[in-house]
Amino acid sequence: MRGVYFTYDCVSPYDADELRTILKNVLTANTVRRQRIGLAALQTYKICEQLARDETHASQLSEHISEMKRLNRFGRRRATTSPAQPQPTTQQ
Predict the structure, then answer these.
(1) Cβ(57)–Cβ(51) under 8 Å?
(2) What's the pTM value of the predicted model, to 2 decimals?
(3) Which range marks the domain in which residue 65 is found?
C-alpha cells in the first residue's frame, strides 16, 4: 500500500490562525443553519397545532403532531439522575 508522505514544511498552506478562523466560520455557519431549521420546524409545528383545532383536520394531524412532540430534542428537559445510594453492608 502506497501512502502520501509530507515533510513538515509543506503540510498545510495555512497557518494556525487562518485554520482557527476557518473553523470558527464553519461553526458559525452550522449554528445559523441549525437555528433556521429549528425555526422552520417550530413554525410547522405551531401551524399544525392551529389546524388541528378544526375538526376536519384533527384526525389527520393528530399523529403528525404527536410524532413531532416525540422527536423534539430541544423543548424537553433532561432527565435528572439521582445519585446512587450506597447499599448498607452488614459486617459479620
Answers:
(1) yes
(2) 0.56
(3) 14-71
